[in-house]
Write a structure and sequence with these properties.
Largest sheet: 9 strands, mixed
CATH superfamily of one domain: FAD/NAD(P)-binding domain
Number of strands: 18
Low-confidence stretches: none
Shape: globular
CATH class of one domain: Alpha Beta
Number of helices: 13
CATH architecture of one domain: 3-Layer(bba) Sandwich
CATH topology of one domain: FAD/NAD(P)-binding domain
Structural class: alpha/beta
Strand content: 15-25%
Radius of gyration: 21 Å
Helix content: 25-40%
Distance between the termini: 29 Å
Mean pLDDT: 93
Amino acid sequence: MRVGVVGCGVGGMAAALALARRGHEVTLLEAFAAPRPLGSGLLLQPTGLAALKALGLDETIRAAGARVERLEGHDTRGRQVMDLDYGDWRTGAHGVGIHRAVLFDTLHDALVPAGVTVVTDARILRIENPEKPVLHDERGRAFGPFDLAVIADGSGSALRSAVRPGARAPVYPWGAVWTNATDIDSRFAGALRQVYHRAEVMTGVLPVGRGPEGETNQVSLFWSLPVADIDACLAGDFEIWRRERLAPLWPEAAALLEGREDWAGFSRAIYRDVSVGRWSREACVLLGDAAHGTSPQLGQGANLALVDAVELAARLNQDQRPTAMAVRAWQGQRRRHTGIYQLASKGLTPLFQAHGAFWPLMRDLFFTPMSRWPGLKQLGVLLLTGTLRLGRFPSETRP
């Protein structure tokens, strides 16, 4: 089968690699002349690690990343808001914090050896004939025809409406700024830690292991804020922000940034609430954030995309029906997983990112106490690990 994959992010590269290793002729089309990762760090859950194992890359990632055994969250009054331990799901279980550039390089380095043809500087703007897709870029070039087009160009997808004209992808009102730092004393090892002030301020530190240049003991620090305020934040006085905003909330996190003079090294992140209905149109299919992007609150975006990719390749290998039917069957299977996280994201995000006193009050009165009850705590751990799914995982991605 000839497959065209649009997008050189985590989902696109994983899909290209999974399909190529099953014998398909894969062309990966990337908009940038030099593909590059966006963002700082991410947390790979047992589901994402299972998908990477299916791709033969999990050991490389584990060696480069940092073991994360729990999620801790406190408010500025010292009250514990979140306390989830991977061991409550399965003995010895853990996540892996990883620098996005390291994950990107690991996937990217595997493409050509697997037989994937990588075409850069090809910003795809139009799909011709969805039954036998031909992909047209902004320079007038045509790629294809393909037997399948996988659209994995992220939550801000330029092609989503071509596949599903009624799709919606509004920007979440809250985003974040991210940076990497060195945790010299390993003070932040072992856990994703967060601090909240009501629901209007959230900051966190995630250990990510090795940096892209070989740096050790790296962590990613994020500061959540309204999207409308990001530009003003990054144009403001860095030291005033560090000393007067971050340090009073979390002195240890502020200490990570001592010696910095400005916002250099920070990246901005915005998120979209993606709703498309069916993900496919004939032989064109959306994958990853292009199909089901959510708030980052549950930290599942890259993990869901990795599972999408591996399960799509497996479905196409097993399902002998026409491509369009096999793709729809794959989507039905995946929605039993992704749909839960889209719903949970909508429900939980206001508890941690919202103006006013109502949502943090609801969190403090109901969510935090109930999350410690045995049954609900187990549900929280399932959400954290990415393993909450209606039905069983296929063998290819079973954690």
